[in-house]
Write a structure and sequence with these properties.
The chain is an alpha+beta fold and 127 residues long. It contains 2 helices and 9 strands. The protein has an 8-stranded antiparallel β-barrel with strand order 1-3-4-5-6-7-8-9. Strand 3 and strand 4 form a beta hairpin. The radius of gyration is 17 Å and the shape is globular. It comes from Flavobacterium quisquiliarum. Keywords: Signal. This is Lipocalin-like domain-containing protein.
Length: 127
């Protein structure tokens, strides 16, 4: 019985690590705002720009982008470890629609991605 308990504990421990990794990006994310980097400061929100946007990261490696609830793109995405342009540190990177982003924040309610280039513009999504 003791061995069975230990086996279940180990299984659930590894299962929790697996769900906490970068695969948690899989969901529907609604755009809240974008903030320009130091060389191009700006603030854009659905209200200031005049449209809504959402992205859906699927479990089969696709990202579907919607503008005002109309699908505008369906493309592949890739998540991998890599070096962030701004701080030269290792981060989880997501590449889609021809651009690479540092995953700055990812939790149950928030996704913040930063352009992995000199500009470093930030895009914030909520669930």
């Amino acid at each position: 019985m003791k061995h069975l308990f230990i086996s279940f504990t180990v299984f659930f421990l590894f299962a929790s690590f697996n769900t906490a990794d970068s695969s948690s990006i899989i969901n529907t994310w609604t755009w809240e705002k974008s903030v320009g980097g130091s060389s191009n400061p700006y603030l854009a929100t659905p209200k200031t720009i005049g449209f809504t946007k959402k992205v859906i990261f699927t479990s089969n490696g696709r990202v579907i982008t919607y503008k005002n609830n109309v699908e505008i793109r369906n493309s592949a995405y890739q998540i991998e470890k890599g070096i962030g342009y701004v701080d030269q540190a290792e981060h989880d990177l997501v590449t889609f629609e021809g651009k690479t982003y540092v995953i700055e924040k990812l939790d149950n309610q928030n996704l913040t991605i930063v352009s992995n280039n000199q500009d470093g513009s930030r895009t914030i999504f909520k669930r």
